[in-house]
Structures are given as C-alpha cells and as structure tokens.
Design goal:
six-stranded parallel beta sheet, 8 helices, 15% strand, 179 residues, single chain, alpha/beta
C-alpha cells in the first residue's frame, strides 16, 4: 500500500498519483491511501474518472495513532509535489522506517539526500514506475527504509535549535563589528 498524506492544494499533485495507477498492471498495482482532506474531497472526481475506486481510499485527517499505523503498514510514502517547503512528512516517514517515493526537486533532495525513489512529478510513467517498484521490490524498499532511517537521524530539533542560536549569534557579532 502506498500512503500519501497532505492537503489538497494543487502543488501537491495528488491527481497525478491517482492517474498513474491505471498504467500499472493490476497484478503489480498497489492500493493507495490518501489522507488529509477536509469536507468534499476534490480527488473523488479523479478516482471516478480513472476507474480506480477499488484501488484508492480517500481519507480525511487522521490522528497520530492512526498515522503511526499507516506508516507501519505502508510500503512507501508518496510525495509527487511540484513544489514544497521543508518536508516533515518525508522525514517522519523515514524516522518510522518507511521509504519515500518523492519528486526530484531541490527542497526534497535536501531532506532525503539520495535515499528515495525519485519521480518526475510531470510524468505519469515515472510516478507509475516508482509505485510499481514500491509494490514489488521488497529488497530495494527495505534498503531504502534502512538508509532513510540513518539519513533521518541527521535531523533533530536540538540540532535545529543549536544552528538557529549560532546563526543569531553570528548575526549579532557581525552587526556589532560594523558599527
């Protein structure tokens, strides 16, 4: 099962994730769960248009316990975004031992390094291939999960706080020296 989580804003590119599913042979096609909708989910129409009702489950926001359960049962977290900020969902997934299939955009490379299945968010074939790999290549996914966990250990709130303080101290020191 492929997990996708987040709001339904256009830059998240969830319709392409769903439109890529019919490109995968049913014998290899994973189920997809997309969480994070509020009210009327705009993806209902895309699921119906593609005929993927038996393959896609659309969910609203889920609580932390359910998210942990989804992380533990999924084979990959999908993030086909066109653009984004720092990727906490990818980092959380890697900390949970869940590999990510993610758009090959600079902000995501900063977070996941080379420890992901990278996709072209504009190419349904690229998205479909990554989902097929996630569903069928357990050895590769296990390797990504292990390497992803190691990569995620580089990030911590403590390290972020220390870096922020150091940055502020440099700015203050440089500001005083310019006076």
């Amino acid at each position: 099962m492929i997990l996708a989580t987040g709001n339904r804003r256009p830059h998240k590119n969830w319709p392409s994730l769903i439109r890529a599913l019919p490109k995968i042979d049913p014998a290899e096609r994973p189920r997809v769960i997309v969480t994070g909708s509020h009210g009327d989910d705009p993806l209902i129409k895309v699921v119906a248009e593609t005929g993927m009702q038996d393959w896609v489950t659309l969910r609203s926001w889920v609580d932390a316990d359910e998210m942990r359960e989804l992380y533990s049962t999924a084979t990959a977290l999908a993030m086909p975004s066109f653009a984004d900020g720092f990727s906490l969902p990818a980092l959380e997934a890697m900390m949970a031992g869940l590999p990510v299939m993610i758009s090959d955009i600079p902000v995501y490379r900063e977070v996941v390094g080379d420890v992901a299945l990278f996709i072209d968010p504009n190419d349904l074939g690229s998205i479909a291939n990554a989902m097929r790999i996630a569903a069928t290549d357990s050895e590769r996914m296990q390797d990504l999960a292990q390497r992803g966990y190691t990569r995620a250990e580089r990030f911590s709130w403590e390290r972020t706080a220390k870096g922020t303080i150091e940055s502020f101290e440099r700015a203050l020191t440089e500001g005083k020296s310019r006076r």
